[in-house]
């Protein structure tokens, strides 16, 4: 259940790092910004910090170790399964300093227990809470984008230009084992477990769709032509009055996009970003392409050609480049560059078939619905996946600000098909 590579020492480091990152992602915001407007797609950041601490306290200290809650009101404030989303702005939330003090106290309680004990259950729950916090950290960043706040002030490296990467690669069909095998270190319930699927050979783009490619669709009246959209996509477009991608505007010099609180000229070779599933689908119709299925995406990322034969090898890679954990050479992750890189960057992260950036840079929509794998049973946090089956679409690969420690080729993210606020783009397949 618990990956052998995690000791209580390494989990102490992760626990401290995750909380420091959460604090850094909101440190520069005013108290008013920490509440923000009531929107269906964001949480008040002050609530979300408290929620992250509550989740850790609930699972590690209360459920895991039987400790009494630090705040008697914590469940009533921060339990996301019980506190309706649109009430989170009017709760009697503790002040900023009280919320941060609570988050520090919970963290210190966990660190203290890790110093004394290292039973597998404690390590598992601690790691789960770190990953939960990592996911909310990504939400803090897209909330800041949604609300037009400045980019978080994290130390950032320059992103060097690398250009486009056109063309497809061919992936052989055959048996493919979708999902992680049971030796995998740590996986979420929705990934369990590897099961055989049959794939036809297919051709998939080496890189995600770029901003320049998306601009061609927009300039060819892509948002005005119902024949390019599915019925559901066209009703979304009409209801949202979407005339172009979110955060885009026309200027005398061409399209610009808003990056946090700044307007920039399009970055032609960086991936299209903030595209929802319907927009991706319409682009595909226009381009004579289609979205990959989850199994195709995973085979392109994790598969290897069978030696001396047609089809896919039975060996799967944990990451596109192999089994080594992500580094700065392989993928754009962890907010290291504070934005996307050109799609030709990170050649060292290519998959066996030559697909680039399948991990990092931008989340990639896949074609089908988010469904349980055969034999699914929920983990202890029962609402992680189960409530969202059937209504959500799956995204793969992580984005520029996803924590690398969270990811692997089999990782399934999921959002409803209308969400444009997340760091999502897509890669296409030949028909
Ligand atoms: Fe949560």
How would you explain this protein's 3D organization?
With 431 residues, this protein is α+β, with helices and mostly antiparallel strands. 32% of the residues lie in helices and 12% in strands. The protein has ten helices and 13 strands. It has helices at residues 8-26, 31-35, 45-64, 74-78, 96-116, 120-146, 211-219, 231-240, 277-287, 294-302, and strands at residues 168-171, 174-178, 195-199, 202-205, 248-251, 254-259, 262-265, 289-290, 363-369, 393-396, 413-415, 424-425, 429-430. The strands form five sheets. The protein has a four-stranded mixed β-sheet with strand order 11-10-9-12. A three-stranded antiparallel β-sheet has the order 5-6-7, with no helix packed on it. The longest helix has 27 residues, at 120-146. The chain is globular, with a radius of gyration of 21 Å. The structure holds fe (ii) ion (FE2). Residues 51, 55, 80, 132, 136 line the site of fe (ii) ion.
Helices, strands, pairings?
Blueprint: H1 8-26, H2 31-35, H3 45-64, H4 74-78, H5 96-116, H6 120-146, E1 168-171, E2 174-178, E3 195-199, E4 202-205, H7 211-219, H8 231-240, E5 248-251, E6 254-259, E7 262-265, H9 277-287, E8 289-290, H10 294-302, E9 363-369, E10 393-396, E11 413-415, E12 424-425, E13 429-430
Helix pairs in contact: 1-5, 1-6, 3-5, 3-6, 8-9
The structure holds fe (ii) ion.
Fe (ii) ion is lined by residues 51, 55, 80, 132, 136.
Question: Which structural traits does this protein have?
Answer:
about 425 residues; alpha+beta; 4-stranded mixed β-sheet; 10 helices; binds fe (ii) ion
